[in-house]
Amino acid sequence: MGIQSQSWADAPQHGCPKGSAQKMKKSVTEKIVELEWEMFSNVSNVGGKASCQSDRQTFQIMRLSQAETWPEEVLASWLNDLETAQKDSRNLMSEKYAWMMESSFPDEFARISDKLPHIDEDALTMIEEMVNLNLDWKLATEEKYPFLSGRGRPLRATQDTPWGTSFETYLRGELKTYSPETVRRLWQHTRNMLQQGVNMAEMELLNQVRRYGYQSLEEAEQAQARCARF
To answer: Which of 69, 180, 187, 198 is deepest in the core (most CB within 10 A)?
Structure first.
């Protein structure tokens, strides 16, 4: 599923003031997170809504921090996915959690897997490459900033339990909700970042701590280390 019409991300950028482009990107990321929140807050859970489904502020911080690591062409494609899903009455957040059950609740997943969209082999290959690259980045970030990272999910799918899902399983589940076009664009961006020596997990973490008022990862790490001592 590709972009159905030319978007601002596909338009020529020459002659477009930098500030204007930044405002456009900010507007698109905010629209993305608004649609994501609408879907997330309406995910059905056994036993009723989870507490995180009422914590809009934290959700926005986490999702905006991720979206800001993406270039315009990836954002445009993912926004198209969300808008298309909304028109088709699909909840991509519900589908993400269903895909996550493949690791955390395999027996239950076997009963619902036929209701999930088919993912072609090329997309699956790109998804697995992105999962592995992000695991490497995440591990490097955790080793560099252990106090900041210690509050997050366990890293690998082998650590999944019915009460806690790993970063690996969460990421794989999310990537499987993206259209083939979004997967391809994000895969290309991920490879570009690898070639440039950029750690996208560290970029995302920096975006998060800045939203909590810190100027740098080092400052946030020191603050968490002080808290751990008391």
So the answer is: 187
In this structure, what token pair is assigned to residue 139?
A: 């591990």
SS3 letters for the chain? CCCCCCCCCCCCCCCCCHHHHHHHHHHHHHHHHHHHHHHHCCCCCCCCCCHHHHCHHHHHHHHHHHHCCCCHHHHHHHHHHHHHHHHCCCCHHHHHHHHHHHHHCHHHHHHHHHHCCCCCHHHHHHHHHHHHHHHHHHHHHHHHCHHHHCCCCCCCHHHCECCECCHHHHHHHHHCCCCHHHHHHHHHHHHHHHHCCCCHHHHHHHHHHHHCCCCCHHHHHHHHHHHHCC
Q: CB within 8 A of 210, min separation 6: which ones? A: none
pLDDT digits (tens, 9 = 90+) for 7-20: 333 333 444 566 77
Q: What residues are paired with 164 via a beta bridge? A: 161
> Is the CB of residue 67 less than 8 Å from the CB of residue 75?
yes
What sign results for the dihedral spanned by CA atoms 180, 183, 189, 192?
Answer: negative
Are the C-beta atoms of 9 and 80 separated by less than 8 Å? Answer: no
Residue 67: closest CA among 77, 57, 55? 77
pLDDT digits (tens, 9 = 90+) for 118-139: 999 999 999 999 999 999 999 9
How many C-beta atoms lie closer than 10 Å to residue 113's C-beta? 13
Backbone angles phi, psi at 58, to 5 degrees: -65, -40
| Predicted structure pTM score | 0.87
| Contact call for residues 148 and 205 (beta carbons, < 8 A) | yes
Is the Cβ–Cβ distance between 180 and 117 less than 8 Å?
no
